[in-house]
Write a structure and sequence with these properties.
This protein is mostly beta strands. It contains seven helices and 45 strands. Helix 2 links the parallel strand 13 and strand 14. Helix 4 crosses helix 5 and helix 6 runs parallel beside helix 7. The protein starts with 39 loop residues before the first strand and ends with a strand.
């Protein structure tokens, strides 16, 4: 399962770059949406409300956020002190204040009939003096800002008091709302001009000086986006950027789109504005100024593309309730993404290679030309399951062509030239949690799914503002037939970081898969068994508690009594979740003719070796590890070898969990074609395992050998080719014996693909029955991210 990283601009957490990651799971904790900050200042105080000559009926206090992040005001308060220092009460604050935004607190009213204040952001009942007093802004027990004004004798003041206001004058912070911690320097008398959260952003202060107009060149959204992967105006200040707000990203920012598009299909009409969300609503026509930036999710060292944004915005709302631009219907004439071409040619880094977008030829260009725009997919097909933790589902348009469909409605990643680049990740982050149902592969979101195009974690996203109705497909979990009397049943199953701390329901469901869906095999090679205390990194490496809990669950599910064998790894040397010490484990049943040949002596650091010749060929340790100290296994799981007897006939099983795809470039990233850096280690691992197989077959050309596990590589990869070998000693990769459309064990971002394999020697090939048992990869309520596989063979 992919590692994930926090994107601060999204309301929820949205792996990075690898095409598929088999190994440990790393879930980043969700960041707080708001954080307390001293960036909030009191920007104005007015105590003459309702008095003689007063322009407003109520007193008010105005706040301003000088920072770059939205601030949660929960738990904050304003306290008033009279000139003598006596407390006049407090007002509790609620809600939040946007970066560069204002917050208006309405206080007590006088007896006059003056005008009402603009809609306040909160209300209180404080009766402020029109001429002398103090206001203290606090966050819990901490003081954030203090303003003392007029002739006061109390200590509630910063430096010297601000000038005395009156019924007709407020005290307003000077232009720019700077805070020197001297009230006399920071405040001036000014006409009352209360500002609430709908006021323009990044404009604060008075003193009789009109704030300077936004600087920079006038630009349209299309000019900012340009015709390549990054803006031609990056780093520049722009102004007069016009459009309609199409979606809000919580308190972080908003998307806007031009209502006067140009005729160039390469230039997007949409744009993300980072900040200013508190001052706008969907349908508002806005004029924005700000700095053009490029945001790269995951940081500068990733292969991810950037998103063009406007930062530190000055936002002015010119009208509200406007119709939104019509969405581009994906799959309609002129708007069909190239399915199997990510980026034509061999440009390297598309952001620096001078690539000019050609949406008709390259999928990367197609989606980039729609960045930030409203799009629509009709009857969108789920080509992978929803990840319920993040509300994300890979989808394609209903009329998608030029793909290989799996029997259950997924799209097959059948080689490096078929990336299925028309996929999008449908995100529910902008919608209520219950508005988009969790899908299985093959389900349909019937009707129109509408949203804006974003980019994150190596993929383009459809950030939905409207979702179709979920309609279930026909995908069901497979159930294998039990082995016949003469057949030895051998399975491989990655159980995804199984630890004793996992809920009992996970053990029960995995046990149900082993007993029912796999029909209780004679041997199951388990990958990702963690130690007795899971991810606690305290030196514990034994996994008896983990295997014991699973074996007990199997028995409780009506299965046979299994026994387990493995070799404990050296602490934190096998990769995966730190402290978890994942390893391969054989569980086996001995009630049908299977016997484990126990040959003690195998350890985490010594290597198993082949002994004997012909029918007497054997291994010195069972269980044993293959070359565990070779550098190819650094931070990776070492192969586990076991010798079994099926009705007295030797059967050698090698369980593998090769290095994960961490560090590979994303398919939809800036480097084209993507580089697969992690493959180098798997090639070395495959060579070592293949060398051991060759030793067994040299000792006995008729040896019965099963090589299986999570290889973290594809059926068409060089890794698989090395393991298979060639000539008389070639192993058969059983996934190759299935019809092409059925070759998948895993789903990554909507690509159905092979990561897990079972290979057998020629002695076992004549009479075999092989099946990928699809129980997990296509289902949102999966117990593991991998499907198990099962082969039934006759051992001679």
């Amino acid at each position: 399962m992919p590692h994930r990283h926090t994107r601060m601009r999204l309301v929820t957490l949205i792996a990075t770059s690898a095409l598929a990651v088999g190994g440990s799971v790393s879930l980043a904790a969700a960041p707080s949406a708001h954080a307390a900050s001293a960036n909030v200042v009191i920007s104005a105080v007015y105590g003459g409300g309702g008095n003689s000559g007063a322009p407003y009926a109520n007193d008010y206090i105005e706040l301003y956020n000088t920072g770059s992040s939205t601030i949660d005001l929960s738990g904050w308060s304003l306290t008033y002190y009279a000139a003598s220092g006596n407390s006049g009460g407090s007002t509790a604050l609620t809600g939040s204040i946007a970066a560069g935004g204002h917050y208006l607190v309405q206080e007590g009213a006088g007896s006059g009939s003056s005008a009402a204040l603009p809609t306040p952001d909160t209300t209180g009942t404080l009766n402020l003096s029109a001429t002398a007093g103090s206001v203290v802004l606090g966050n819990g027990s901490s003081t954030v800002d203090t303003v003392g004004y007029g002739a006061i004798s109390s200590s509630y003041v910063e430096g010297s008091p601000a000038p005395a206001p009156s019924n007709k004058l407020a005290d307003s912070r000077t232009t720019g709302c700077h805070d020197t911690d001297d009230n006399a320097k920071d405040f001036v008398n000014a006409d009352p001009a209360p500002l609430n959260s709908t006021a323009p952003l990044a404009i604060c202060g008075s003193g009789g000086v009109t704030p300077p107009p936004p600087t920079g060149m006038s630009a349209t959204i299309e000019q900012i986006q340009g015709t390549s992967f990054q803006s031609p105006l990056v780093g520049q200040q722009v102004k007069d950027v016009k459009g309609v707000v199409t979606a809000l990203n919580g308190s972080s920012g908003f998307w806007m789109q031009s209502t006067t598009p140009d005729d160039d299909p390469r230039t997007s009409e949409g744009l993300y504005v980072f900040g200013g969300a508190g001052s706008v609503k969907v349908g508002d026509a806005v004029v924005v100024a700000g700095k053009v930036t490029e945001y790269r999710p995951g940081g500068v060292d990733t292969g991810n593309l950037t998103t063009t944004e406007l930062g530190n915005p000055n936002v002015q709302v010119t009208s509200s309730g406007n119709a939104l631009p019509a969405p581009v219907v994906i799959g309609s004439k002129g708007h069909v993404p190239p399915a199997q071409v990510v980026e034509a040619g061999d440009p390297g880094n598309v952001e620096t290679a001078g690539v000019t977008l050609d949406p008709s030829k390259s999928a990367l260009d197609f989606w980039e030309s729609l960045e930030g725009m409203r799009i629509q997919e009709n009857d969108a097909k789920a080509v992978g399951p929803t990840n319920p933790s993040y509300g994300e589902t890979p989808i394609v348009p209903a009329n998608t062509r030029q793909v290989t469909w799996t029997p259950d409605g997924g799209v097959l990643y059948r080689n490096y030239a078929t990336p299925n680049a028309m996929r999008l990740i449908l995100s529910s982050a902008l919608l209520p949690k219950t508005s988009i149902g969790s899908a299985n592969t093959g389900d349909t979101y019937r009707g129109a799914t509408v949203g804006v195009v974003d980019y994150n974690f190596g993929n383009y996203y459809l950030m939905a503002t409207q979702a179709g109705q979920l309609q279930r497909g026909s995908t069901t979990r497979d159930v294998a037939k039990p082995a016949k009397k003469k057949q030895a049943a051998v399975a491989t199953f990655n159980v995804e970081n199984l630890a004793p701390s996992d809920p009992q329901t996970k053990f029960n469901r995995l046990a149900g898969q082993i007993v029912t869906n796999l029909a209780a095999p004679d041997i199951v090679a388990l990958e990702e068994i963690q130690d007795n205390n899971g991810a606690t990194d305290n030196g514990v490496v034994d996994s008896t508690a983990t295997t014991g809990k699973l074996i007990a669950a199997i028995k409780a599910a009506g299965g046979p009594s299994y026994q387990a064998v493995w070799i404990n790894p050296v602490n934190d040397q096998d990769g995966g979740q730190p402290g978890g010490n994942i390893r391969q484990v054989f569980i086996y049943r001995d009630d049908r003719g299977m016997t484990f040949v126990n040959k003690p002596g195998g350890t985490s650091i010594n290597s198993v070796a082949v002994t004997g010749k012909g029918p007497w060929a054997s291994i010195n340790y069972s269980p044993g590890r293959i070359d565990p100290t070779d550098a190819a296994w650094d931070s990776s799981r070492k192969p586990l070898v076991g010798e079994f007897l099926w009705w007295g006939k030797p059967l050698f099983v090698i369980a593998n969990h090769f290095a994960a795809k961490l560090g590979d470039d994303p398919l939809m990233g800036r480097y084209q074609p993507p580089q697969r850096a992690s493959e180098v280690q798997r090639l070395a691992q495959a060579s070592i395992v293949r060398g051991f197989v060759d030793q067994l077959l040299k000792a006995n050309k008729n040896a019965s050998i099963v090589v299986l596990g999570d290889l973290n590589d594809f059926d068409f990869s060089q890794t698989a080719a090395i393991l298979k070998g060639h000539g008389k000693t070639a192993l058969t990769d059983l996934i190759d014996t299935l019809p092409a459309k059925e070759r998948y064990t895993y789903d990554y971002e909507g690509n159905s693909q092979v990561l897990d394999q079972i290979l057998v020697s020629k002695a076992l090939l004549a009479k075999h029955d092989y099946q990928v048992v699809h129980t997990n990869s296509q289902f949102y309520d999966q117990d593991s991210d991998h499907d198990p596989q099962l082969v039934k063979v006759e051992v001679h």
